[in-house]
């Protein structure tokens, strides 16, 4: 019998570590986890892997092909022959990185740490075809990323540059909120102008103009060397105006 994760459940099971509790909570958004699965995540969290910014988390041929991101941001990209790359999706804490199952067709993509990342290796502990709660949660997380990729294709093909930016930021703010990583109406995103350029298909100079427009609209509260601080409420209103 599956069960939702509650603080009392975690303490009863000996899962008192705050980070492990957060890992389980975020993954259980996709499917409720059993008691033994909670214990497994807690145990594996004790030997999590660390990745430096720019280091690959997963690509074809690597042994670790099922990772649960604990902290930090990563990007899935397609590298082009001339050295450029297109960002397909962003991966946040609670997301599962995989080349198995629903994501087998993405073997020509690379997942790279955007910031410092910690991740749990589920490769040897989770059979995606088993039908167990942990497997279903992982599969649904993988399928959710696939949907984000479809959304990215739609915004690149059918939106102007400012609409692309606002729509992407709205998606990311919503995901931060769902993962419990947004402080009130403020959202901090560790995304630079160059990363926006690779995600939106525009030049870094154009991105700078778009960010200035966001600032004028009251969406951009602060620009940092390593990212942005946004007013999520103002972003929601701006999205209604420009994206409908």
Could you outline the blueprint of secondary structure elements for this entry?
Layout: H1 7-12, H2 18-28, H3 35-45, E1 49-51, E2 56-58, E3 66-71, E4 74-79, E5 85-91, E6 96-98, E7 110-113, E8 117-121, H4 133-158, H5 161-178, E9 186-189, H6 193-200, H7 204-216, E10 220-224, E11 227-231, H8 232-243
Antiparallel strand pairs: 1-8, 2-7, 3-6, 3-8, 4-5, 4-7, 9-11, 10-11
Helix pairs in contact: 2-3, 5-8, 6-7
What string, H for helix and E for strand, traces the elements in order?
HHHEEEEEEEEHHEHHEEH
Q: Could you describe the largest sheet, including whether it forms a barrel?
A: 4 strands, antiparallel
Q: Percent range for helical residues?
A: 40-55%
Structural class: alpha+beta
Architecture per CATH nomenclature, i.e. the level-2 architecture of the largest domain: Sandwich
Distance between the termini: 43 Å
Q: How many independent structural domains?
A: 2
CATH class of the largest domain: Mainly Beta
Low-confidence spans: 1-18
The fraction of residues assigned to DSSP E strands is 15-25%
Strand order of the largest sheet: 1-8-3-6
Separate helix tally? 8
For this structure, what is the CATH homologous superfamily of the largest domain? Jelly Rolls
What is the residue-averaged pLDDT?
A: 83
Q: Write down how many β-strands occur, each being a DSSP E stretch of 2 or more residues.
A: 11
Calculate Rg over CA atoms: 18 Å
What general outline do the C-alpha atoms trace?
globular
Could you please say which CATH topology of the largest domain applies here?
Jelly Rolls
């Amino acid at each position: 019998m599956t069960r939702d994760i509650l603080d009392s459940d975690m303490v009863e099971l000996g899962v008192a570590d705050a980070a492990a509790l957060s890992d389980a909570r975020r993954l259980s958004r996709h499917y409720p986890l059993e008691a033994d699965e909670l214990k497994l995540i807690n145990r594996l969290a004790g030997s999590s892997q660390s990745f430096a910014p720019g280091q690959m988390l997963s690509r074809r041929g690597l042994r670790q092909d099922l990772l649960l991101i604990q902290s930090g941001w990563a990007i899935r990209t397609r590298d082009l022959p001339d050295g450029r790359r297109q960002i397909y999706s962003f991966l946040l804490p609670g997301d599962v990185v995989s080349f198995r199952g629903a994501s087998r067709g993405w073997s020509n993509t690379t997942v790279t740490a955007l910031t410092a990342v910690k991740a749990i290796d589920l490769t040897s502990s989770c059979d995606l075809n088993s039908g167990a709660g942990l497997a279903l949660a992982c599969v649904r997380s993988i399928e959710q990323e696939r949907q984000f990729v479809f959304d990215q294709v739609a915004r690149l093909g059918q939106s102007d540059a400012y609409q692309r930016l606002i729509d992407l930021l709205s998606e990311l703010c919503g995901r931060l909120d769902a993962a419990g990583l947004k402080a009130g109406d403020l959202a901090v995103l560790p995304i630079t102008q160059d990363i926006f350029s690779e995600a939106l298909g525009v030049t870094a100079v154009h991105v700078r103009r778009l960010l200035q427009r966001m600032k004028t609209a009251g969406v951009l509260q602060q620009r940092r060397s390593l990212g942005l601080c946004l007013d999520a409420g103002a972003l929601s209103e701006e999205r209604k105006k420009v994206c409908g």
